[in-house]
Amino acid sequence: MTGKNLKRLRLEMEKEGVDIYVMTLADYHMSEYVGDYFKEIEYISGFTGTNATLIVTADEAGLWTDGRYFIQAREQMDGSGVKLYEIGTEGVPTVEQFIESHLIEGKVLAFDGRLFPYNWYKKIEKIVDKKNADIRTDLNLLDSFFKERKPLPKEPVFILEEKYSGKSTKDKLSEVRAQMKKYGAEGYLLTSLCDIAWLLNLRGNDIPSVPVFMSYIYITQ
Prior knowledge:
- The chain is of the alpha/beta class.
- It has 2 domains: 2-136, 3-Layer(aba) Sandwich (Creatine Amidinohydrolase, Chain A, domain 1); 158-220, Creatinase/prolidase N-terminal domain (Creatine Amidinohydrolase, Chain A, domain 1), CATH 3.40.350.10.
- The protein contains 8 helices and 10 strands.
- The protein has helices at residues 2-16, 40-45, 70-76, 95-102, 118-130, 162-165, 169-182, 193-200; strands at residues 20-24, 53-56, 61-65, 83-86, 108-111, 134-136, 158-159, 187-190, 202-203, 217-220.
- The chain is globular.
- The mean pLDDT is 96.
C-alpha cells in the first residue's frame, strides 16, 4: 500500500508543478509526538518512528532518521520505494545537502509551511535563492488523496487541580506578564502545547500518552 501512496504523491507533485516535496513528522506546534492526523510519513513510507524527514522527487524518495530507528526503518520501509538515510553516518548527506544537490534552476521545492520551524525555512530559502529556483509553503499534497486520514483531535480538556499543579493559573500569568513588562512586550504568543498546558493548569488527550490539547494562547498585559 505504501508504494501505491508514493505513486499518488508523485502524481500530485506533477499536477502542482512540484519537483521536490519535503515532509516532516510534526504538528502545527512542532511537537515530537503527534496525533494520527499528522502521520503522513507513515502513510507514504510505512515508518512509524517519532523522528523523520521524507523527501520525494520524480524518481527518488528518501527518509532521514536518527540511530534509534535505523533497524526499524529498514524493516518497515522494505518494498516501499523509500531509501533510508541514516543521520550522522559518514558519507550520508543531510536533508539540506540532498536538497541543494537535487534542486536545479527554475524548479520548485514545496512543503507544508505549518509543519516546519522558521529557522529551517530560512536555511532552505538560501538554497532556493542560490539555485534560482522557487519555493512553495502553501501546499499539503496529501490532502487530495489521504482519505484514511484521521480528523484533527478534539478530546475534552480538564482542569488540573492546584494541589497537583502547585501554583494557580492566575499566579503563573502574573509571572509571565512581569517578564513581558521587563522586556517591553505588549503581547506574547505561546505555541508549545506543553507550555500552554502548564500555564493554564489544563490537561487533554489530543496526543496519545501526552496530556496536552491542540491550542494557541496570546497573552496581553
